[in-house]
Design brief:
The protein is mainly α. The chain contains six helices and three strands, in the order ααβααββαα. It has helices at about 5-15, 20-30, 40-45, 50-60, 80-90, 110-125; strands at about 35-40, 65-70, 75-80. A three-stranded antiparallel β-sheet has the order 1-3-2. A hairpin with a 2-residue loop joins strand 2 and strand 3. Helix 2 (about 20-30) packs across helix 4 (about 50-60). The longest helix has 20 residues, at about 110-125. The model has no long low-confidence stretch (mean pLDDT about 85).
Length: about 130
């Protein structure tokens, strides 16, 4: 999905998230990061039967919010952070008088690097 979204794309994404199970799935995938989770793990954590899970995952895929890849015999689902950021940008693009500085963005790779740096600094301080 492109970084600039149309009103139709945003309403599709928000519509897909406007259901409790799908919102829970999506939040779990966002938390997991780019590696994603298998359908089996998602079903187990949410207590959702496989047929219902497939229905909900298809809705999120159709909205462009998640991706699917096959690893051996497993289907792995992951959040599409570019799409998530595009939705948030669309919702906040007129915030603060259209100043881009107040629009948030999610970058899991940067967050992981920041966590690693913080942990390294803390470890150095403990060694002193």
């Amino acid at each position: 999905m492109s970084t600039k979204m149309t009103t139709i794309q945003v309403t599709g994404a928000l519509g897909a998230l406007a259901q409790e199970t799908r919102l829970g799935l999506y939040r779990m995938l966002v938390k997991r990061g780019p590696n994603g989770l298998s359908a089996g793990v998602l079903a187990e954590h949410l207590g959702v039967p496989p047929s219902s899970l497939s229905f909900h995952l298809r809705a999120l895929q159709h909205a462009g919010l998640i991706s699917q890849r096959r690893v051996s015999r497993q289907l792995i689902y992951a959040a599409d952070y570019a799409a998530m950021n595009a939705v948030v940008h669309y919702l906040t693009e007129n915030c603060c008088g259209a100043e881009s500085a107040c629009a948030p963005a999610c970058d899991p790779a940067a967050a992981l690097a920041t966590r690693r740096n913080t942990n390294e600094v803390a470890a150095r301080k403990r060694r002193r």
